[in-house]
Amino acid sequence: MKVVLPGGTGQVGAILDRALTAAGHEVTVVTRRPTRAHDVGWDGATLGRWATAIDGCDVVINLAGRSVSCRYTAENLRAMMDSRVDSTRVVGEAIAAAARPPRVWLQMSTATVYAHRFDAPHDETTGVIGGSEAGVPDYWAYSVEIAKNWERAQAEAPTPDTRKVALRSAMVMSPDRGGVFDVLSRLVRLGLGGPVAGGAQYVSWIQDEDFVRAVEFLIARDDLDGPVNLASPDPLSHRAFMRALRTAWNVPVGLPATRWMAELGAFALRSDTELLFKSRRVVPGRLRAAGFSFAHPDWESAATSLVQRARSARSAVPRGVS
């Protein structure tokens, strides 16, 4: 199978590149900074020679977009919007122009599209799209607009011969350096892995191996299109989430953080507190209904597995090499 990964050099792209290549598929990564033999360059906004990789491929998985790990300034929010919408639009143009278009286009989206909510989980049918919640920062609504415009750019692309799926993904947990699991694990090992702002907000997540398996499942299932939640069936409160992570690392205590402490920490890390404070209670309704079975459905066992893999990777690094 020939797979093209626009924007495939980030954490999620690296996970898919590694897994799909190991499974024997031919993977081409479309990136602004091509350095490897299977990389192809682009600018993320205009058609170019890179589009020839899409003509004749089997699957496109578009992951392009500015990282959300930044301060949510007006400039950065606009860059997030433009990079997602522009890249999705031009991928659609490449597919539309292809003599042999791919049979399926998986488009990265985000579970952030759903409302900040504590009372009930969001699935694709009954979930409430966010943007009008009371008592949350005004700029949270812009994050929802980014997600809606991202999905709209794919839905409106004139690609009648290509099935389209929008991946409303929760946080992908992997032991790779720099990913969200790695950052949270470092906080835990420093004794800072307690609940933030009370810890009642829900955390939705998916283990990296299940993310890959879900992508493969969606590629194979010709009857599934439109938005699909990629999240474990076990969203849990931030308090319980961090407690399970501390247990996996065998760290008994984690200092809690108040809202203002989290604001200071996010500023120091050049990140934003929406990633911590927004309650994301998302469940995989369509995946489960279609018969997908999670290898890591609960966070306790998933965290234990990820910690074991992280420890193995660290022990495999020669002494003195970072």
Describe the structure.
InterPro entries: DUF1731 (IPR013549), Epimerase_deHydtase (IPR001509), NAD(P)-bd_dom_sf (IPR036291), SDR39U1 (IPR010099). Pfam families: DUF1731, Epimerase. Belongs to the NAD(P)-dependent epimerase/dehydratase family. SDR39U1 subfamily. The chain is α/β, with parallel strands linked by helices and 322 residues long. The chain contains 10 helices and 11 strands. The chain has helices at 11-22, 74-97, 140-155, 180-189, 208-220, 238-249, 259-268, 274-277, 285-289, 299-316, and strands at residues 2-6, 26-31, 39-41, 59-62, 104-108, 163-169, 171-173, 202-203, 205-207, 226-230, 236-237. A 7-stranded parallel beta sheet has the order 3-2-1-4-5-6-10, sandwiched between helices. A two-stranded parallel sheet has the order 7-9. The chain has a two-stranded antiparallel ribbon with strand order 8-11. α4 (180-189) crosses α6 and α6 crosses α10 (299-316). The protein is globular. The chain starts with a strand and ends in a 6-residue tail after the last helix.
